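Q: C-alpha cells for this one, please.
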Amino acid sequence: MAHYPLNHPLRPVFRFLAFLAGAYLTLFGAIGLGVTAGDPVFHRGSDWVLGLRTNPATAWLTLLLGVVLLAVVLVGRNLYHRVTLVLGWALAGYAMIMMAMIQTDANVFNVSMVNVIVLTVLGLIVLTAGLYGKVGTPEPAPGESRAAHGIRA
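A: Here is the predicted structure, written as C-alpha cells:
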C-alpha cells in the first residue's frame, strides 16, 4: 500500500506548481482555439502556440485538462490529491502515446517532440503535486511520520 504524507510542509509549493501547470495548459488551449479557428478538428497544419504544435482537437483537449486542473487546485482538500494523481499519470501517458505516433498518420493531435517533452514534464509536476497533496487532521500526522520513518510507538 502506498504511503502518502499527510499535511506535508511543501504542499503549498507543489500546489502552486500544479496551478502553474494548469494555467499553462488552459492558456495553450485557449490561444490554440483562436489560432486554429476554422480549421478541421484533426488538421495536420503548421500551427504553433506557446512553442507547441496544435490543432483544434489538441487545443480542446488541453483546455479541458487545464480547466479541470485549475478547478481541483482551487477546491483543494483530498479531491486535489486524488485528481492530480490521475491527471499527472494521464498527461505523462498521453505524451508517451503521442511520442509513438509522431511520424505516422495516427498523429491526429498534430504533436511534435517538443509537445511530448513539455507534456511529460507537466505530467510529472502534476503527479508530484498529487503525491504531496494529501490533507488530514493534525492528530494522525505524527503517527504517519513515525510509520514513514519505521519508528515503532
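A few notes: The two ends are 20 Å apart (CA to CA). Residues 86 and 106 are 25 Å apart (CA to CA).
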